[in-house]
Design a protein that fits this description.
The complex is a heterodimer of chains A (177) and B (745).
Chain A: E1 3-8, H1 17-26, E2 35-44, E3 47-56, H2 64-68, E4 74-76, E5 82-84, H3 94-98, E6 105-106, E7 112-113, H4 119-122, H5 129-133, E8 139-143, H6 150-157, E9 160-161, E10 173-176
Parallel strand pairs in A: 1-10
Antiparallel strand pairs in A: 1-8, 2-3, 4-5, 6-7, 9-10
Chain B: E1 46-51, E2 60-65, E3 71-76, H1 89-92, H2 95-99, E4 108-113, E5 116-121, H3 124-142, E6 147-151, H4 155-166, E7 171-172, H5 174-191, E8 208-212, H6 222-233, E9 237-241, H7 247-250, E10 254-256, H8 263-276, H9 282-288, E11 289-290, H10 292-298, H11 304-311, H12 315-328, E12 332-334, H13 346-360, H14 408-413, E13 427-431, H15 435-438, H16 442-451, E14 454-459, E15 471-474, E16 486-488, E17 494-496, H17 511-521, H18 533-543, H19 548-554, E18 556-558, E19 582-583, H20 587-591, E20 611-616, H21 630-635, E21 640-643, H22 645-651, E22 658-663, E23 673-677, E24 685-689, E25 717-718, E26 725-726, E27 731-735, H23 739-744
Parallel strand pairs in B: 6-7, 6-13, 8-9, 8-12, 9-10, 11-19, 13-14, 14-15, 20-24, 21-23
Antiparallel strand pairs in B: 1-2, 2-3, 4-5, 4-15, 16-17, 17-18, 20-27, 22-23, 22-27, 25-26
Classes of the chains: A alpha+beta (177), B alpha/beta (745).
């Protein structure tokens, strides 16, 4: 089982519903976030294009954050989900520095926090909160090992890219382009 | 200068001080594997049906309530076709409306203390008594017609009922003259009916969607955004006309970066190509429309070459996009838009849009515009409303002959003495609209608010308008109250319930209760013949084969249609115009003294050093009402001014710098706004998102953040047909130093 997410940049309107849904679902304190939206603009008027992306922890197969964690708080769960055990985390911040996606933040309660792929929902067979609310249905979550899954299907049929491939982290968030 | 009605900052009297725990409470203290994740908690949440009030789309959803009575989250109801189980960021962030520590908490009455006007806290009994005494007095002195209501949203229904029972028909919604009015009148003049809300556009099945300045995706009209995404999946062609690369434009096969204010020229050229190249739907036009020959003659000279000089759009692009529409017809939508009050010839522009739809045969065909169907909820029994001696129509003085809803601007102008004439309106109730941000007539508004004998504001938040009230009534949020059933006419009839998820916070009360209490004090108890609003809803639902109990359980009840959403093949369909035919040539307009077919008028252009002010929406905010919502402020705390990098180079303006904006009449923004350098905007225009720049300090999060476009809209181009307030004829320049500091020095 290998959990992954594919996000369709052709449909995302950058509304940030994913961000606020994550906030309420996971009690993320206001002022912090586990996911966020970026916009890149290319070209000059009127030959301009933009790409909107909902970003978060890439739950990398080769996760620098797990490798550098001195206490083992950052670890892999079933399906390759990278998690932080809050009561084992000493808040040293090494993982924050190691992440090429800037996906982690220091929670005011003293531990490091980030996207969990909503593992509490996924274990009940539900989609992560961000995927479940997306008004444009531009996000696909599923198991890369399941050849019949929707995510495998979209990745087979569409062009896609991952972010910061040069970092060699083997990320599991894919952007359909 | 001492005025009768000084602006009072509600915080100045210590009412904002109620302590509220910061941030979201940590609900899970147990030893869950991941510390604070919410896996334990979700199982104990209670689910209560509601429909959203953060915008007018009113998506049905569920409030998820914790055991200790807090609202943890709000999610969409899967059965609601308006949201399909997915709320937008504002709906998801609706929890912030409930938790906002700056909410109005108790009734307030204006008093003068030591020569200074201030508010003091009052009991509901006292506040309501004050209002009803004054309303009785106004009725006796000037007649009930001297009262007016300004409203937006669900609460408006309750106050409309109260005002009709009291005896006035002066019920004005800024959503008409400031927003969708021109569009509705333009479509009514053509098809005999408007496109309603939510719009009856069949986007999900369309093959070609044409957007004229309508920025779906930034205006987060949920169902529409969802359907546009579905249409993208299905390979629909999107054509977007916008001086700015809007989000929708960035998803489009064709983006037409038009010179602002020239849309009618493009629309006429498109009509010309469709007719001249015989691309229009001949069968449909001959069966359902009249006035084709007149239209053909009218557009003879409006070639794409003619339009090129006006719009800056290449003739080949105008022709190829017209062909795309024709290829897709009748599964094509030239979108009617929503906020249409732009240049004062807006009914004519929307007429041109309607005519294009007619030529392509979209209304009544799959993938075009469908016929809606809904369930009518009967009124709860009450005595007949008294007939007012006069209504808002008489305030128009023969102007705006096609206005079919009260024109806010006329009601405002009738609220102060002018040209030696006494004011006819003496008292206002304002419910759910921050008039100073929604109506661009600052001078008239100020005069009116100084002249009125009674000004009552009902709101959940201390918006700017509350500072002008004699009495401020704190309403509870939509999550804490019953409201009318949302009975939606659309693809399928739906009924949705809103009920209290939690008890109202502080001393706040629901609008239905406030209206009933006032009604009883005014001797109108017979119009409010119930104890609780749930009785009204249960009675109404039982009339249509449901019950309150059923809707409390399911939230949304869908019914199947009895009629076809499309014209049946070969059917003799009658449109709702007088003749039953679509009016390509409008006799109604001609008789009223207007152009029976749209013409292009040149609008003023910016002087050197000035740029056209274009404003719009961001997906995470609704007008000015969400600017203090903690969850949504976290997503977008302020607006920025979009400036093309070439323009910024001339001015030496840098990215993220703060500038003040000054318009052609010398109006200067209250605050500075952050610069966003972007290639997404033309050189002759700037763009800002509406709803920011609040200057009322009790709005702790919103205060001083960004600029308020309404302050810079001093040139209002009135639509002579229906009174729309065209707002896009304003030009601004940049000030890099604080102009007020200079003035002080």
């Amino acid at each position: 089982m290998r959990y992954a997410m594919a996000i369709d940049t052709k449909k995302c309107v950058g509304c940030s519903d994913c961000v606020v849904a994550c906030q309420t679902e996971n009690n993320v304190p206001i002022g912090f976030c586990r996911d966020w939206v970026t916009e890149t603009v290319d070209g000059t008027y009127p030959n301009v294009s933009i790409e909107l992306r909902s970003e978060r922890c890439n739950h990398c197969d080769n996760s620098p954050c797990v490798r550098c964690c001195p206490t083992g708080a950052s670890h892999f769960e079933d399906g390759g989900i990278v998690l932080v055990t809050h009561n084992k985390c000493i808040g040293c911040g090494a993982c924050i520095e190691s992440c090429p996606y800037e996906a982690r933040y220091s929670h005011p309660d003293g531990y490091v926090d980030k996207c969990t792929f909503c593992i509490h929902r996924v274990r009940k067979g539900e989609n992560p909160a961000c995927v479940s609310v997306c008004p444009t249905s531009c996000m696909y979550f599923g198991d890369l090992d399941d050849p019949n899954s929707e995510i495998v299907n979209v990745l087979k049929n569409r062009k896609f890219k991952a972010l910061a491939p040069e970092a060699g982290t083997k990320p599991n968030i894919f952007y359909l382009t | 200068m001492k005025t009768r009605r000084d602006f009072i900052k509600i915080s100045a009297i210590g009412l904002g001080a109620t302590a509220v725990a910061a941030g979201a409470a940590k609900a899970v203290l147990g030893s869950s594997l991941f510390g604070n994740d919410s896996d334990n908690e979700t199982d104990t949440l209670r689910r209560v049906p509601t429909y959203c009030e953060v915008c007018f789309w009113k998506c049905a959803g569920w409030a998820h309530v914790t055991e200790d009575g807090n609202i943890k989250k709000i999610t969409g109801n899967d059965d609601d076709p308006q949201c399909n189980g997915k709320l937008c960021p504002r709906g998801t962030g609706g929890v912030g409306m409930f938790s906002d520590p700056d909410r109005l908490k108790t009734p307030l009455i204006r008093v003068t203390k030591d020569g200074k006007q201030t508010y003091r806290e009052a009991s509901w009994d006292e506040a309501l008594g004050f209002i009803s005494t004054k309303m009785d007095d106004l009725k006796a002195k000037y007649g009930p017609e001297s009262m007016a209501l300004f409203f937006h949203g669900s609460s408006g229904n309750h106050f409309s009922h109260l005002m009709k029972a009291y005896g006035t028909a002066n019920l004005a919604a800024p959503s008409f003259a400031q927003c969708r009015g021109p569009r509705d009148v333009g479509f009514e003049a053509t098809f005999g009916e408007s496109v309603s809300s939510p719009e009856v556009t069949d986007i999900r099945d369309t093959k070609c969607l044409v957007l004229i300045g309508s920025h779906i995706g930034e205006n987060m009209h949920n169902g529409q955004v969802q359907e546009m995404s579905e249409a993208i999946d299905k390979g629909a062609v999107i054509i977007t006309v916008d001086p700015r690369l809007s989000t929708a434009a960035s998803k489009s096969k064709f983006w037409l970066p038009i010179k602002p204010s020239t849309d009618i020229a493009l629309l006429l050229a498109w009509i010309h190509v469709l007719i001249n190249d015989e691309l229009y739907n001949k069968e449909y036009v001959s069966a359902y429309a009249e006035g084709f020959e007149e239209l053909k003659a009218h557009v003879k000279n409006f070639t794409p070459e003619w339009a090129y000089g006006i719009t800056t759009l290449k003739p080949a692009l105008i022709r190829s996009t017209a062909r795309e529409m024709a290829n897709a017809a009748p599964s094509v939508i030239i979108h009617p838009g929503r906020h249409a009050a732009w240049y004062g010839d807006d009914v004519q522009r929307t007429r041109a849009i309607a005519i294009l739809n007619a030529l392509l045969g979209s209304w009544g065909n799959r993938g075009g515009i469908f016929f809606k169907e809904g369930i009518k909820i009967p009124e709860f029994p009450h005595p007949e409303y008294p007939k007012p001696a006069w209504s808002w129509k008489e305030l128009l003085d023969g102007k705006y002959p096609l206005a079919n809803e009260a024109v806010t601007n006329s009601v405002i102008e009738a609220s102060f003495p002018s040209n030696g004439k006494e004011a006819r309106i003496k008292g206002w109730i304002i419910s759910g609209t921050n008039l100073v941000a929604s109506v661009p007539l600052k001078e008239e508004l100020t005069k009116a608010m100084q002249s009125l004998e009674l000004l009552v504001v009902v709101d959940t938040m201390p918006m700017e308008i509350t500072g002008f009230a004699d009495v401020v009534l704190p309403e509870c949020t939509y999550l804490e109250r019953y409201d009318d059933i949302r009975a939606t006419s659309h693809r399928e009839p739906t009924l949705c319930l809103r009920m209290p998820a939690v008890e109202p916070k502080h001393q706040t009360k629901p609008a239905w209760w406030i209206a009933k209490q006032l009604g009883e004090r005014l001797g109108l108890g017979a119009y409010f013949n119930y104890k609780e609003y749930s009785e009204v809803l249960d009675w109404q639902l039982k009339q249509v084969g449901s019950s309150l109990e059923e809707l409390q359980r399911i939230g949304v009840k869908k019914s199947s249609r009895k009629t076809s959403p499309y014209i049946e093949p070969g059917a003799d369909h009658q449109f709702k115009t007088a003749s039953g035919k679509i009016q390509l040539f409008s006799h109604e307009m001609a008789e009223a003294g207007f152009d029976p077919m749209p013409v292009f008028t040149q609008h003023p252009e910016p002087q050197e050093g000035f740029y056209r002010l274009i404003y719009g929406r961001a997906p995470m905010h609704t007008f000015s009402r969400t600017a203090n919502n903690p969850n949504l402020v976290a997503l977008m705390p302020e607006n920025s001014v979009w400036i093309n990098p070439q323009v910024a180079r001339i001015w030496g303006i840098k990215k993220d710098q703060y500038v003040w904006l000054k318009n052609q009449d010398g109006a200067v923004s209250n605050f500075a706004v952050k610069v966003r350098l972007t290639e997404r905007i033309r050189w002759d225009s700037i763009y800002i998102v509406h709803g920011f720049g609040h200057h009322h300090k009790p709005l702790h999060l919103a205060y001083g953040r960004g600029v308020n476009d309404t302050e810079l809209i001093t040139n209002v181009m009135l639509d002579p047909i229906m009174g729309g307030t065209g707002m896009r004829g304003n030009f601004v320049t940049f000030l890099t130093e604080d102009p007020r500091k200079e003035a002080e020095a």
